[in-house]
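pasting for ref
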Amino acid sequence: MSDFDTLLEKARVFHGDVCPGIVMGTRMTMAGMRELGMNPMEKNRDLIVYVEIDRCATDAIQAITGVTLGHRTLKHRDYGKFAATFVDSSSKNAVRIAAIPKKREQEQDFQAIAQSLATIPESELFTIQKVTVNIPDEDLPGLPTHSEFCSTCGEQILDSREVNTNGIIKCKNCANGSYYVVTE
């Protein structure tokens, strides 16, 4: 079994099936880690990954690398792009892998697309760019570096995520509006 097949299987088990996004995420991970000189078959504690989409590719990246939101090694930037930036926190080297947009046949089924994506040359599938990522201390793995309390709801806000308006501290929900509405 090839490394690709092994990693694809790891992503499949985590995600539940193989779809085009799982194939793309597997190939993105392999490219990103290769560019950083890391082995995707091994856990690397220095790896931080910024994903730009909340779709299947992110599951593949997480399954293969072991990065997670809880460990603060997986960062989500909601840009709606099939792209991810792989960062070696010890060397500060970083590489962004982005899908090259292609118009796909609408009548093709997911399995046919996934099989095609597994064999397309990497140079036709992705752009690979060396980039610089400035990771603030409050975004690094480890214990919270800063804590405040919202003056409106009283909830604790960690890691400098508060909004300070003329000395009045609020959480983002109270300052900007929330995604939820309290019903009771």
